[in-house]
Design brief:
CATH class: Alpha Beta
CATH topology: Alpha-Beta Plaits
Largest sheet: 4 strands, antiparallel
Strand order of the largest sheet: 2-3-1-4
Helix content: 25-40%
Order of helices and strands: EHEEHHE
Strand content: 25-35%
Number of domains: 1
CATH architecture: 2-Layer Sandwich
Shape: globular
Distance between the termini: 13 Å
Structural class: alpha+beta
């Protein structure tokens, strides 16, 4: 499993339009081969910044998606709202990390 983290800078004033277009574009991500989960969050301190997290079965699955028609369609729907280039990285989950403290806080 690989987690893709993308910070998406959106042109101020276009956040609502971006969110609407993302809802239309998201199925291209969710239906991609190797995509396990997609989530989008809006910045609290920076309301024009969004965090896109995508769980992929492998880095190869992500790379294959970037060469697909689905990626082109996704990008065509949302890229016009970008105020700059998204900052993207990939992460491998650590199953050994344990979270302690409050009983409501569990390891992920």
């Amino acid at each position: 499993m690989i987690i893709e983290r993308a910070e998406l800078p959106i042109t101020p004033g276009q956040e609502s339009d971006f969110e609407g277009q993302f809802a239309i574009a998201a199925p291209y991500l969710r239906e991609a081969r190797g995509c396990a989960r997609v989530s989008l969050a809006r910045g609290v301190e920076s309301s024009s910044k969004y965090l896109l997290l995508i769980e992929w079965e492998s880095i190869e699955a992500h790379h294959a998606f970037t060469l697909s028609e689905g990626f082109d369609r996704f990008r065509d729907l949302v890229a016009r709202f970008f105020a700059g280039k998204p900052d993207t990285e990939h992460f491998a989950p650590l199953n050994t990390v344990q979270v302690s403290g409050h009983p409501g806080c569990r390891s992920v």
